[in-house]
Write a structure and sequence with these properties.
The chain folds into 2 domains: 159 residues, HAD superfamily/HAD-like (Rossmann fold), CATH 3.40.50.1000; 80 residues. It has 10 helices and 8 strands. The strands form 2 sheets. A 6-stranded parallel β-sheet has the order 5-4-1-6-7-8, sandwiched between helices. Strands 2-3 form a two-stranded antiparallel sheet. Helix 1 packs across helix 2 and helix 5 runs parallel beside helix 9. It is globular.
């Protein structure tokens, strides 16, 4: 089984492949971090600097250093503790404390089937998650969603170590295109965040499938996209050939709903 309409599938992670509501996950993540580093750095100050450095990452536009380098330059000099002392503690956090956040997430049954379908079709497959986290935190969440790197051979997983922009910038998608050696029209992006996964992708010419309830209204009706629905809806459309039909309609100037 092959897909004639596109050659690469880009998949968001949180609240797309993996049920992970950020309004629950992030506070728990921050709380766990504060507790883990409190013997070295005051917890509230640590989180404030983490947020500040993360905001700095979101300004990265693809023209210079990696997101990790931008983060580190803004983050580590904030503390009295030396970087070489703090880094091992954070690495230990991701080994021992981060896995305990898994119960806050829920695997989505369609996720591994989508990756399997794409691989059977010979598509390049990318985990196109906003690269604000280190590789270990992303790969652990992939594992929670039954799409781990030990199970599937992905063509690219965007992390803060290997990315030079975030989803706030078109450069994020251009970097993926460059890594894959693909043109925008050869790719489909699937994600739940309208701004990051649909509008930004459309800005560089990548067709988006919006993971959203059928009754949700697109925030910007001028942005063309393939369709909207659940992850199961996407899988059904992909396997039935409906996705290729939507791509053809979009190429002819008709936005999907």
């Amino acid at each position: 089984m092959t897909s004639s309409g596109f050659k690469a599938l880009l998949l968001d992670l949180d609240d797309t492949l993996l049920g992970n509501p950020m309004d629950t996950f992030i506070p728990a993540y921050f709380g766990a971090l504060k507790d883990f580093v409190s013997h070295m750095v005051p917890g509230e100050f640590f989180i404030a600097q983490l947020l500040s450095a993360t905001r700095k990452m979101t300004t990265n536009d693809g023209s210079g250093p990696t997101n990790e380098e931008v983060f580190s330059e803004a983050f580590y000099p904030s503390f009295d503790v030396a970087r070489h002392e703090l880094e091992p503690v954070l690495e230990d956090f991701y080994r021992r404390a981060f896995p305990k956040l898994q119960p806050l997430t829920r695997p989505r049954a369609a996720a591994p089937w989508i990756v399997e379908w794409a691989k059977e079709c010979g598509l390049q497959v990318v985990i196109a998650t906003n690269p604000l986290f280190p590789q270990t935190a992303i790969e652990q969440r992939m594992e929670w969603g039954a799409v781990g790197v030990d199970r599937f051979d992905f063509d690219l997983v965007t992390t803060y170590e290997n990315s030079h922009a975030t989803k706030s910038h078109p450069a994020y998608y251009r970097e993926i295109l460059s890594a894959l050696g693909r043109q925008p029209g050869e790719c489909v992006m699937v994600g739940d965040n309208w701004d990051w996964d649909v509008e930004q992708a459309a800005g560089v010419g990548i067709a988006g499938y919006w993971i959203a309830d059928g009754g949700d209204q697109p925030p910007n009706s001028a942005v063309p996209f393939l369709a909207q629905g659940s992850l199961d809806d996407f899988l059904e459309s992909a396997k039935s050939g409906g996705l290729d039909e939507r791509l053809s309609q979009l190429a002819d100037g008709g936005a999907g709903r």
